[in-house]
Amino acid sequence: MMHYLVAVLPDRIQAEAAYSALENEGMSNNQIDILGNGYKSADEYGLINPNQQIKTGQARFSWLIPFGFVAGYAFNVLTGIKLLPAIGAFGNHLLGGILGAIAGGLGAYFVGGGTGLLVGSGDALSYRNRLNAGKYLIVVKGSEELTERATRVLRQFEPENLQGYAEPSETKVTSV
Known about the structure:
- The structure is a single chain.
- This protein is an alpha+beta fold.
- It has helices spanning 12-24, 42-45, 50-60, 64-79, 88-120, 124-132, 144-155, and strands at residues 3-9, 32-35, 136-142, 161-166, 171-175.
- Strands 2-3-1-4-5 form a five-stranded antiparallel sheet, with helices on both faces.
- The radius of gyration is 25 Å and the shape is rod-shaped.
Protein backbone atom coordinates (compact mmCIF):
# COMPACT_ATOMS: atom_id res chain seq x y z
CA MET A 1 0.00 0.00 0.00
CA MET A 2 1.42 3.39 -1.04
CA HIS A 3 1.33 6.16 1.57
CA TYR A 4 1.60 9.88 0.93
CA LEU A 5 2.51 12.75 3.22
CA VAL A 6 1.79 16.34 2.17
CA ALA A 7 3.31 19.32 3.99
CA VAL A 8 2.37 22.92 3.21
CA LEU A 9 5.26 25.35 3.68
CA PRO A 10 5.07 29.14 3.41
CA ASP A 11 8.01 29.82 1.10
CA ARG A 12 10.61 28.37 -1.25
CA ILE A 13 13.47 28.59 1.26
CA GLN A 14 11.64 26.43 3.80
CA ALA A 15 10.53 24.00 1.10
CA GLU A 16 14.10 23.55 -0.13
CA ALA A 17 15.41 23.18 3.43
CA ALA A 18 12.76 20.54 4.17
CA TYR A 19 13.63 18.72 0.92
CA SER A 20 17.32 18.70 1.90
CA ALA A 21 16.51 17.43 5.41
CA LEU A 22 14.48 14.59 3.92
CA GLU A 23 17.36 13.71 1.58
CA ASN A 24 19.73 13.70 4.57
CA GLU A 25 17.42 11.14 6.21
CA GLY A 26 18.11 8.80 3.28
CA MET A 27 15.00 9.46 1.19
CA SER A 28 15.58 9.38 -2.55
CA ASN A 29 14.54 11.92 -5.17
CA ASN A 30 11.79 9.64 -6.50
CA GLN A 31 10.16 9.58 -3.03
CA ILE A 32 10.06 13.38 -2.54
CA ASP A 33 8.46 16.08 -4.69
CA ILE A 34 8.20 19.85 -4.34
CA LEU A 35 5.15 21.54 -5.81
CA GLY A 36 5.11 25.29 -6.24
CA ASN A 37 6.51 28.14 -8.31
CA GLY A 38 9.67 26.92 -10.07
CA TYR A 39 8.91 23.27 -9.32
CA LYS A 40 6.14 20.87 -10.34
CA SER A 41 2.69 22.35 -10.83
CA ALA A 42 -0.51 20.79 -9.47
CA ASP A 43 -1.37 19.56 -12.98
CA GLU A 44 2.08 18.06 -13.55
CA TYR A 45 1.85 16.21 -10.25
CA GLY A 46 -1.68 15.01 -10.97
CA LEU A 47 -3.77 16.85 -8.38
CA ILE A 48 -7.40 16.74 -9.44
CA ASN A 49 -8.49 19.84 -11.33
CA PRO A 50 -11.79 20.99 -9.81
CA ASN A 51 -12.95 22.46 -13.13
CA GLN A 52 -12.58 19.04 -14.74
CA GLN A 53 -14.55 17.49 -11.88
CA ILE A 54 -17.36 19.99 -12.46
CA LYS A 55 -17.52 19.11 -16.16
CA THR A 56 -17.53 15.40 -15.33
CA GLY A 57 -20.37 15.92 -12.85
CA GLN A 58 -22.36 17.87 -15.42
CA ALA A 59 -21.84 15.17 -18.03
CA ARG A 60 -22.97 12.56 -15.50
CA PHE A 61 -26.30 14.38 -15.17
CA SER A 62 -26.80 15.04 -18.90
CA TRP A 63 -29.51 12.35 -18.97
CA LEU A 64 -31.76 15.00 -17.39
CA ILE A 65 -32.07 16.79 -20.75
CA PRO A 66 -33.96 14.05 -22.66
CA PHE A 67 -35.81 13.17 -19.46
CA GLY A 68 -36.88 16.81 -19.16
CA PHE A 69 -38.06 16.83 -22.78
CA VAL A 70 -40.19 13.71 -22.30
CA ALA A 71 -41.55 15.00 -18.98
CA GLY A 72 -42.38 18.44 -20.43
CA TYR A 73 -44.01 16.89 -23.49
CA ALA A 74 -46.06 14.45 -21.36
CA PHE A 75 -47.07 17.18 -18.92
CA ASN A 76 -48.36 19.33 -21.75
CA VAL A 77 -50.26 16.40 -23.27
CA LEU A 78 -51.84 15.53 -19.93
CA THR A 79 -52.77 19.08 -18.91
CA GLY A 80 -53.66 20.46 -22.34
CA ILE A 81 -52.15 23.85 -21.45
CA LYS A 82 -51.90 26.08 -24.52
CA LEU A 83 -48.65 27.96 -24.14
CA LEU A 84 -49.04 29.55 -27.56
CA PRO A 85 -52.53 28.98 -29.00
CA ALA A 86 -51.38 29.90 -32.53
CA ILE A 87 -49.09 26.83 -32.91
CA GLY A 88 -51.75 24.18 -32.27
CA ALA A 89 -51.81 21.19 -29.94
CA PHE A 90 -48.74 19.38 -31.34
CA GLY A 91 -46.71 22.62 -31.35
CA ASN A 92 -47.63 23.23 -27.71
CA HIS A 93 -46.62 19.69 -26.81
CA LEU A 94 -43.24 20.24 -28.51
CA LEU A 95 -42.82 23.59 -26.80
CA GLY A 96 -43.57 21.93 -23.45
CA GLY A 97 -40.91 19.32 -24.26
CA ILE A 98 -38.37 22.00 -25.18
CA LEU A 99 -39.03 23.87 -21.95
CA GLY A 100 -38.66 20.59 -20.03
CA ALA A 101 -35.35 19.90 -21.80
CA ILE A 102 -34.13 23.38 -20.84
CA ALA A 103 -35.09 22.70 -17.22
CA GLY A 104 -33.25 19.36 -17.39
CA GLY A 105 -30.18 21.08 -18.83
CA LEU A 106 -30.19 23.63 -16.01
CA GLY A 107 -30.50 20.80 -13.50
CA ALA A 108 -27.52 19.01 -15.04
CA TYR A 109 -25.52 22.26 -15.04
CA PHE A 110 -26.16 23.26 -11.43
CA VAL A 111 -26.65 19.95 -9.63
CA GLY A 112 -24.06 18.03 -11.66
CA GLY A 113 -21.52 20.84 -11.36
CA GLY A 114 -21.98 21.13 -7.62
CA THR A 115 -21.86 17.38 -7.12
CA GLY A 116 -18.75 17.08 -9.30
CA LEU A 117 -16.97 19.72 -7.27
CA LEU A 118 -18.00 18.44 -3.83
CA VAL A 119 -17.61 14.70 -4.41
CA GLY A 120 -14.48 14.52 -6.51
CA SER A 121 -12.05 17.15 -5.41
CA GLY A 122 -11.28 16.16 -1.80
CA ASP A 123 -8.27 18.06 -0.45
CA ALA A 124 -6.92 18.79 -3.94
CA LEU A 125 -8.82 22.09 -4.15
CA SER A 126 -7.32 23.22 -0.84
CA TYR A 127 -3.82 22.32 -2.04
CA ARG A 128 -4.36 24.08 -5.38
CA ASN A 129 -5.51 27.21 -3.56
CA ARG A 130 -2.40 27.17 -1.39
CA LEU A 131 -0.17 26.77 -4.45
CA ASN A 132 -1.99 29.67 -6.12
CA ALA A 133 -1.30 31.75 -2.98
CA GLY A 134 2.45 31.19 -3.47
CA LYS A 135 2.93 28.42 -0.92
CA TYR A 136 4.90 25.21 -1.50
CA LEU A 137 3.99 21.57 -0.99
CA ILE A 138 6.39 18.79 -0.08
CA VAL A 139 4.97 15.39 -1.03
CA VAL A 140 6.61 12.23 0.30
CA LYS A 141 5.48 8.86 -1.05
CA GLY A 142 6.44 5.43 0.11
CA SER A 143 5.77 2.95 2.89
CA GLU A 144 4.00 3.82 6.11
CA GLU A 145 7.32 3.67 7.97
CA LEU A 146 8.89 6.10 5.46
CA THR A 147 6.06 8.62 5.79
CA GLU A 148 6.26 8.38 9.60
CA ARG A 149 10.00 9.20 9.41
CA ALA A 150 9.22 12.05 7.04
CA THR A 151 6.57 13.35 9.46
CA ARG A 152 9.17 13.61 12.24
CA VAL A 153 11.56 15.48 9.91
CA LEU A 154 8.92 17.85 8.49
CA ARG A 155 7.44 18.79 11.88
CA GLN A 156 10.63 20.70 12.74
CA PHE A 157 9.83 23.10 9.86
CA GLU A 158 6.44 23.91 11.43
CA PRO A 159 4.36 23.39 8.27
CA GLU A 160 0.99 25.12 7.95
CA ASN A 161 -0.53 21.71 7.34
CA LEU A 162 0.81 18.17 7.48
CA GLN A 163 -1.52 15.51 6.13
CA GLY A 164 -1.05 11.81 5.44
CA TYR A 165 -2.97 9.63 2.98
CA ALA A 166 -3.11 5.95 2.05
CA GLU A 167 -3.55 5.36 -1.70
CA PRO A 168 -6.44 2.86 -2.07
CA SER A 169 -9.12 4.91 -0.30
CA GLU A 170 -7.21 8.12 0.45
CA THR A 171 -8.04 7.78 4.11
CA LYS A 172 -6.29 10.13 6.48
CA VAL A 173 -3.33 8.61 8.28
CA THR A 174 -1.77 11.54 10.12
CA SER A 175 -2.88 15.03 10.92
CA VAL A 176 -1.24 17.96 12.68
